[in-house]
Design brief:
Layout lengths: L3 H8 L1 E5 L3 H7 L3 E3 L2 H10 L4 H14 L3 H20 L7 E4 L8 H17 L7 E6 L2 H12 L4 E6 L2 H9 L4 E4 L1 H11 L11 H15 L5 E4 L5 H6 L5 E4 L1 H8 L11 H4 L11 H9 L2 H31 L1
Parallel strand pairs: 1-2, 1-8, 2-3, 3-4, 4-5, 5-6, 6-7, 7-8
Helix pairs in contact: 3-15, 4-5, 5-6, 5-15, 6-7, 8-10, 9-10
């Protein structure tokens, strides 16, 4: 009998949410996604990746004299080094994140995306295999709109609510990554609940709503559920375009046998009674700020991604000082 991971792959594209190459090889996902937290964990805990770190440091040092000037070059190259290695394993795409400190800077985000794509192309990798990850702020969405026109595909991350999802689709973003588990975290704390039944999980309900909206109105933007807290959330979203899953849940699914029912269906979504929504900048900002969960988790996510990036910079600086 096929395990649940194999069955899930029949109805959803499975993405590995890790920077660990061994995990990617083990579970054979179609795509992979990384962020500064995952890269920091891989770079600091596993010696086998030190050559990628060293190569990035040498590159950065060739671009500037002092560390303050070097560090953005080093981080960019490190992200691309990991992404390039991952692309030797997965058949399709890898997501690479733009510095979270650029979340409110349209031109800065565009420039950073150009730099990352340039480094990938110098490594012989087609830009079609790269997804540039941008925070789902108004500025991030506008940056994605311009980049998509240039043939640079974007993955809108830190997405928690419908206003973000609608504007990302209208901008023509290739993919969105709604954070299922972080939505659940907020509601558990806000409503003082220890858990929810899988069918009532607020993160699952949010992604289901977005899925139905996109399929109802024929958007090409793909939906990739992310940031899971348990396997039940993943099972409830079977049929979503993509799901990015941490190794521990991939293992749990691989070790589980039994039926897996497809919960999300594009054809059924087209039959739903949903009204189309549109936002200009003022309406988007008001709607986002009117959603306590959405605005709080977006701000928290930007802070956390930034903190992890700073930790990665500190690790590299210490490594340089040690020689």
């Amino acid at each position: 009998m096929a395990n649940k991971l194999e069955k899930l792959k029949e109805m959803t594209t499975v993405v590995a949410d890790t920077g660990d190459f061994n995990s990617i090889k083990k579970y054979q996902p179609t795509d992979a996604t990384t962020n500064p937290s995952l890269i920091f964990k891989a770079a600091t805990e596993q010696m086998e990746y030190q050559s990628l770190v060293e190569e990035a440091i040498h590159y950065g040092q060739s671009q500037a004299q002092d560390f303050e000037s070097q560090k953005s070059h080093i981080i960019d190259k490190l992200m691309v080094n990991f992404g390039s290695e991952i692309l030797k394993i997965v058949p399709r795409r890898v997501s690479t994140e733009v510095d979270a400190r650029l979340s409110f800077d349209i031109q800065g985000s565009i420039d950073k995306a150009h730099k990352l794509i340039s480094l990938y192309e110098k490594a012989g990798i087609d830009r079609k295999r790269i997804l540039i990850k941008l925070a789902s702020t108004w500025e991030g969405i506008k940056a994605a709109e311009q980049l998509e026109k240039e043939g640079i595909h974007c993955n809108m991350t830190l997405l928690f609510c419908m206003p973000q999802a609608v504007c990302a689709a209208e901008a023509g973003a290739t993919l969105i990554s709604p954070f299922v588990g972080r939505i659940l975290d907020w509601y558990k704390k806000s409503e003082n609940k220890e858990s929810y039944p899988p069918t009532e999980d607020p993160g699952v309900l949010s992604v289901t709503e977005i899925f139905n909206y996109y399929k109802k109105f024929g958007y090409n933007t793909e939906i990739m559920g992310a940031s899971f807290r348990n396997v039940d959330e993943i099972i409830e979203l079977a049929g979503c375009d993509l799901l990015t899953i941490a190794p521990k849940y991939l293992e749990e699914l691989q070790n589980a046998e039994g039926d897996l029912v497809q919960k999300l269906h594009a054809e059924k979504a087209k039959e739903t009674d949903i009204k189309k929504i549109s936002y200009d900048e003022k309406a988007f900002r008001f709607a986002l700020n009117d959603n306590p969960m959405g605005i709080e988790k977006l701000a928290e996510g930007i802070r956390k991604f930034t903190a992890d990036l700073i930790k990665l910079e500190k690790f590299i600086h210490e490594k340089i000082q040690k020689g």
